[in-house]
Structures are given as C-alpha cells and as structure tokens.
C-alpha cells in the first residue's frame, strides 16, 4: 500500500513538473516586447508575411525576429522583414523594442514615408538596413544619436537632401551605404575625421556634386564608391602607397587630375575610373598591383600602357576612348 501511495505521489510530482515546464516554455519572450510586436503587426495592416505572429504563441518563435537566449527574460534583439508584400510606413513602435540590436526592412516596395524619430530610443542598435523600399525624406541628422551603430545601409530608396555631417560622430561606424538615392550637395568635410574606425563608404548613383574634401586623404579607406555622381576636381588624395585600400570606384563623374603622380598600395584589387577627365599616363609601378577589376576608359590619358603584371589581362574595353593611350591590349601601336 505504501508503495502505491509513493508511486502515486511520484507520478503526480512528475506530472506537475512537466506541466510547469510546458507552461513556462509556452511564452518565453518578454511580454512588453510581445505587445509592441503586435502593435507593429497591426500598424503594417496585419500582413500575411507576419502570420506566425499569433498572440497565443511564444513570440520568440515568430518569424522575422530573434530573441536573446542569454537572458532569462528573453528580449527581442533582431527584427528583419524582407521581401514582404507590405504597404505602409515603418511603425514608430519599433522604437519600443529597447534591446533591439538589428533592424531590417528590405525589398519592400510599398514601404513609404520617412525614417521615424523613435528609432533614436534604440540605444543598442548596431545594424540598420532600410534598403530597396520607397522611403523618402532626408537622411536624418538624428541617426547620429545611435552611438552603437556599426552598419548603416539606406541604399535603393528615394532619400533626398544632403548627407548629414554628424554621421562622422558615430564611434563604431564601419559601413555606410547611401547609394542609389536622390541625395544632393557635397560630401561633408567632417567625413575626413570619423571619430572611430574608417568606414567603407558607398555614395554611388546620387546627384552629389562639388569637390572631394581634401581631409578624406588623411584616412585609410578600405572601400570607396563615389561613382555616377557629379563630382569635379581632384580625387588623387584618396590614393597613397602606404594605405591599405582594396577598392575605389570613381567612374562616371567629372574628376580631373594627373594619374601619372598617383601611387597605389599593393593591396589594391578594384579600380574603376572610367568616364572622367583624368590626364597623364598609367604609372609603371601599377604592374605590381594584383588588380581583379580595372577600367580607365573614357578619359584623357596618354602614353604606353605598361607591360607586365595584371595590366595586360584586361581587354581593350578597360582602356579605350582615351586621348592618346597606346600599346597592348589596344590596337593602336605606340610611335
């Protein structure tokens, strides 16, 4: 009899523990975060893309987000909405996810409006990607309040106005992509003195103009893309034999400088200078550079193309339509 009672008690205890475990595992995400997420879903008109966001289930199991597994009270740290049939604006409630480190709205063509000021409340935000949407308005000055921000990508939108100089104040910024927008004005002088590391800088396919600030020559950029804008003047300060630059694309602008005097590091892999007004000749030292992509066509270069190294690996397309450039791979022989 005692054994039966003992077995019954043991079974009851096991059942209680299992039931308690199941109950606790049902909803492990923070309840404030859950309420905020449901507001975001409602603000986006309850799209099918967020069908898994069921108030009866654990929000840490929902699609498009990630919770922090390192804490007992699991907080939402990532919200990524990608290739979704969604119409509307970025919900201001995203600013009410206080532990968010990553925020992505990408390839959502019916996402309109401006970047909400409420994202300044996201003190831990490190990764912000709002790309391939129909967002408009300026690139906000208030982005400089996101002191943990390391990655900023606002490409393929309709942002207009000038580039905020305050972005250079972000101490952890390592990647900036503002390409394919409608930005105007010049590159801020402050971009020659980023307070932290030197970021990769992508500003292509805009309506930017003016000269490149000389202060940019003080920095050792790894990747730069200023192509398809309206820049003029000298860009030679971006180069330097003692730098560790890998890629520079200045194509389809109106730059004018003497290429003969330009020294480049042996780390260079990509150089595109096509469709400018660059003069001089190609330095012989460039034969020592392991180029993967190279194009100096549609300029005003003269002289013999140096032989050796990688320079002869590229076809005539990389060299043609210059003033008096000659030698292989061009058909024109040097007199």
TrEMBL record:
Xref: SUPFAM superfamilies: L domain-like (SSF52058)
Would the keyword Transmembrane be found if you checked this record's keyword annotation?
no
Keywords in alphabetical order, please: Leucine-rich repeat, Repeat, Signal
Give the signal peptide range.
Answer: 1-23
> What stretches pass through the bilayer?
none
Spell out the subcellular localization from the entry.
Cell envelope
Pfam families per record: LRR_1, LRRNT_2
UniProt keyword Ribosomal protein present: no
Q: Which PANTHER family match?
A: POLYGALACTURONASE INHIBITOR 1 (PTHR48059), POLYGALACTURONASE INHIBITOR 1-RELATED (PTHR48059:SF4)
Family listed = Belongs to the polygalacturonase-inhibiting protein family.
Protein name (database record): Polygalacturonase inhibitor protein 16
Where does this protein come from, organism-wise?
A: Brassica napus
Instruction: Write the lineage as a comma-separated list.
Output: Eukaryota, Viridiplantae, Streptophyta, Embryophyta, Tracheophyta
């Amino acid at each position: 009899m005692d054994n039966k009672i003992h077995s019954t008690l043991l079974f009851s205890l096991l059942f209680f523990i299992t039931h308690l475990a199941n109950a606790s595992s049902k909803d492990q995400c923070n309840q404030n975060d859950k309420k905020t997420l449901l507001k975001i879903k409602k603000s986006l008109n309850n799209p099918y893309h967020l069908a898994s966001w069921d108030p009866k289930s654990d929000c840490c199991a929902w699609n498009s987000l990630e919770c922090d597994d390192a804490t007992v009270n699991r907080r939402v740290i990532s919200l990524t909405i990608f290739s979704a049939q969604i119409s509307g604006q970025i919900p201001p409630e995203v600013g009410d996810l206080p532990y968010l480190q990553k925020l992505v709205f990408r390839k959502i063509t019916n996402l309109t409006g401006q970047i909400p000021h409420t994202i300044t409340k996201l003190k831990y935000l490190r990764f912000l990607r709002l790309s391939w949407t129909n967002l408009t308005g300026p690139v906000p000055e208030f982005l400089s309040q996101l002191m943990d921000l390391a990655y900023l990508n606002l490409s393929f939108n309709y942002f207009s106005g000038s580039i905020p100089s305050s972005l250079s104040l972000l101490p952890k910024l390592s990647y900036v992509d503002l390409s394919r927008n409608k930005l105007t004005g010049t590159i801020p002088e402050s971009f020659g003195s980023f307070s932290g590391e030197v970021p990769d800088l992508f500003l292509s396919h805009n309506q930017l103009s003016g000269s490149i600030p000389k202060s940019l020559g003080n920095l050792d950029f790894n990747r730069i893309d200023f192509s398809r804008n309206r820049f003029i003047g000298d860009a030679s300060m971006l180069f330097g034999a003692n730098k560790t630059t890998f890629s520079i694309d200045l194509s389809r602008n109106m730059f004018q400088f003497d290429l003969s005097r330009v020294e480049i590091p042996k780390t260079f892999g990509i150089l595109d200078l096509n469709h400018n007004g660059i003069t001089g000749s190609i330095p012989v030292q460039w034969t020592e550079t392991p180029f993967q992509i190279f194009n100096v066509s549609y300029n005003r270069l003269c002289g013999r193309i140096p032989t050796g190294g990688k320079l002869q690996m590229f076809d005539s397309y990389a060299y043609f339509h210059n003033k008096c450039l000659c030698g292989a791979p061009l058909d024109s022989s040097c007199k």
